[in-house]
Amino acid sequence: MNGIFTVTQEMLVADSVRLFWRKYEEGHDIVVDNVAVTSVEAQDPDKLMNNGDFSSGDTRHFKPDRGGVISIYAGGYDDDFALMMTGRDASYYGVRQNIDTNVLEEGVSYTASAKFKLFLPDGTTPFDCEPTAVAGKKICPVMYLKAQEPGVGSQTRLIGSTLGEKDADWNTIAGNVVFFHNEINAPSLTLIIDRAPAGIVMVLDNVGVTKVTSTA
Q1: What's the start-to-end Cα distance of the chain, in Å?
Q2: Does residue 20 or residue 38 have the better pLDDT?
Q3: Which end of the chain, N or C, is surrounded by fewer C-beta atoms within 10 Å?
Q4: Which of 85, 38, 50, 49 shows the shortest CA–CA distance to 65?
Q5: DSSP string of 85-121?
Q6: pTM reported for the whole predicted model
Q7: How far is Cα 130 from Cα 162, in angstroms, rounded to an integer?
């Protein structure tokens, strides 16, 4: 269990600040251990994903999207950890992270990318998707944005798809994006990775959306 909060002025001047654990089953006891509150580094405005390499050893900042279970996976693309998603009863069960729109720049290009592996429901037998498939039982994961606007609903658009080649058994999702005006000003903007076939286990690492810097 993990989370992020911003210290407010009310917290700073309060006599005490408490942590609560709630919403567990009535009549059950809960055992809590290793409770910690630590400061985190400010987000790099040129790198929009937090904990995208899962070097923290947990899945903080990421949440299941519409279903499934996420957990930490031992053995990342280039470090010790990655994210694993199981319980994917539908292809649209995926992983999401909110983007801080305050750091977005209009008219600027960003590179979106992620590494992934796929397994059968046993979690150990590799599964190969087909990057050119657009439907069916061999589709590959994709990356897209979802902007939520009051009174309008949500707008989604694809920003990254699976490339054909593998790198040390890892597949790559990649693409480029320039954020729309309405996305930058949306109350909620989310990056989502999903669309692997139902039942397939997804392992993700190095999830990133990074500002393209000029070489001139």
Answers
A1: 45
A2: 20
A3: C
A4: 85
A5: EE---STT-EEEEE--GGG--TT-EEEEEEEEEEE-T
A6: 0.85
A7: 9
d(CA 44, CA 186): 20
Q: Which of 57, 87, 62 is CA-nearest to residue 72?
A: 57
Spell out the residues 6+ positions from residue 127 whose beta carbon is closer than 8 angstroms to its own: 118, 119, 120, 197, 200, 201
Element (H, E) at 183: helix 181-184
Tokens of 157: 């658009």
Smallest CA-to-CA distance from 50 within 76, 78, 80, 83 is with 83
**Under 8 Å between Cβ of 147 and 98:** no
Alpha-carbon distance values, 124 to 4, 84, 101, 127 (Å):
32, 12, 38, 9
Q: How far apart are CA 175 and CA 29, in angstroms?
A: 47
**Residue 9 one-letter amino acid:** Q
